[in-house]
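Hey team,

Filing this mostly as a record. A colleague (T.K.) asked me to run one chain through the structure pipeline before their review meeting, and I want the input and output archived in the tracker in case anyone asks later how it was produced. No errors, nothing strange. Just documentation.

Input sequence:
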Amino acid sequence: MPESKYIQSQGINLHYLEWGNPNSPDLLLVHGWTNIAESWTQVAEYFENEFHIIAPDNRGHGLSEKPSTGYLLNDFVEDTATIISALELKRPIYIGHSWGANIGTILAADHPELISKAFLEDPVYWKFINSFATSLPVGLARLNRPESEIREQGIQNKLTPDEIKFEIYRHHHFSPAALTHLLKDNRSWAFSCEDFIQRIKVPTLVLVADNKLGGAILPEEMDYFQTIGSDFINFRRWEGVGHGMHTSNPERFNQELSSFISAPEV
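Output structure:
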């Protein structure tokens, strides 16, 4: 079982989970909106014998504090930088999903001194321009979804009792103010993301989910980003796999991540 700990950042308490030996190389796992640190369990358990692993609950999520404001993308970047510094992580390999992949894009461009590589799972780039309208109602609806309905769907999807318990917890442990501000206040990211993609300074792999199954990047967008991106960034599309790649296909995800970790830096 991971250790559950807290750290202060910008005046609030952030919760994080820790696996593995602190003397091992560091991995930093950062989740997306309406998710929590525990969503990385299958990834962390796969790598914990070789790596020291930190997975925070982002502000407004899980057991971290949920202030009424402070949800600009740069606030999350600063929280992440604080975690790396305060926990004395040694240029960890950064793994981020969705919103966490957006954070990783900025770190890979502006803070190469903090991370050694970036493994970005289906970041939200151009699509962010309309996420306030398309994603907010769906996200907020989770808060009012009856436990019985979540449990029944879990049974239909052949989830284990522990997985069902996690789904119930995840649906109800994020702040509506956090999600509203996150999606409303950061729409400019749809335009500024290109600048960061062009300035990536550490080896970076972007996994692109199938947009027909809820993926955040269209094939044409991927081609464009690959064209304008720095020499350090590459994109890889997964056909037939939706936005939650590390939870729906953990074995493939872990193998892909393992290959990325072991690849020599150019």
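Quick notes for T.K.: Residues 3-128+188-262 form a domain with the Rossmann fold fold (CATH 3.40.50.1820). The longest helix spans residues 73-86.
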